[in-house]
Amino acid sequence: MPTHLRTILASLLGTWQTTVTAARQTRPTARQRRSDLAAQGRGAVIWGLAFFTGLTALFFPLAERQPVLRDAEYGMRFQMLRRQVHDKPPDQPCVVMLGSSLTAMGFNPSALTTVKPASEGGPVVFNFGLPSGRSVVQLLTLRRMLAGGVRPDFVLIDTQGAFCAGANQFGAETYYPLLRLQGNDLPVICRYDPDGDAVCDRWLRLQRFPWLSYRKNLQACLLPRWATSAEQSEMSWRFIDQNGWLVLPHYLDGTKHWSHEQKSQSPRYWAKGISSQPCSESLIRVYREIVSLCQRVGVRIVMVRMPEYSVMRAEIKPETQAQLDLIHADLSRATGEPVIDARAWVPDDEIFDGTHLSPAGSVRFTRRLEKDALEPLLFKRTRAEPPTSH
Hints:
about 55% helix; 17 helices; Rossmann fold; single chain; five-stranded parallel beta sheet
């Protein structure tokens, strides 16, 4: 073999031997390998905890800026209202009606003829009725709205008589799901819910893993098509128009063949509930707090007694009706505005399930409300009568 080839092979062999020797010398021992794995594991755990803590902490400022993350029913409506208030001319007023599903399905701003919210440069008239939105929910909604930077010029309040009995009024778990509450709602819940402290404790436990706790609400907002048909039917915000009016086609179809007796069952239940117990003192305190809050921020407020099925008006005991009249007279004096008594405005055939107004009934109610309440408020007509129910 030529000398230069032997030299090259010897050099390569020497390099290989050096490399193998170095590798053997630097190969970690079993203890070193265990130590390295433990260090990698600790690092992974630390980074995982840091990511989890950061993601959890991120939820709370996001939820403050986007209330839809906690409460899609409120958040979707609030986004629509805030956008309309932002776009309206500065000299045009904003009117908001708060209430329950009776309001949501009964007040149709698009049916207004003189006060035209959809017209160029017109006012904002928005239906902020929420399912099961009784007096405490109305107070929470108003507080949230003001905290979110939306201050209406006028607020209409649904004071449906069926909600006045104490046992039918309170309980956050029943009438406002725990997951829909916000941190600023808790003082109100503690004041008015008999189990307020327990509700707050359960709510705080849900905040430990918010992305997990609110996963269904997040899915409803971001991926509503992934929900079942039953879950989709409960997302009432998907069925509201640009002014907040709610129409539930599946509900209308399911009750269109109901007889008078079937429609009468719900009004009879509510009439019996109201007549069997005195009106709640807490209810009166809630409405007074709403009035006080409106007056403190310069918002004019009008109470509206929503349309009722004839059976309900007939079966409430006279003494109970007298008590309700006194409550509304007191509220009228507090607000300085007449209470709008719309109980007999809509015929029974336009109250499709004995409680909620049909689309035709909502048009009838809205246009009468426009004449009796909105026009006097917005156009500053002079009233000849003192502020009493009419």
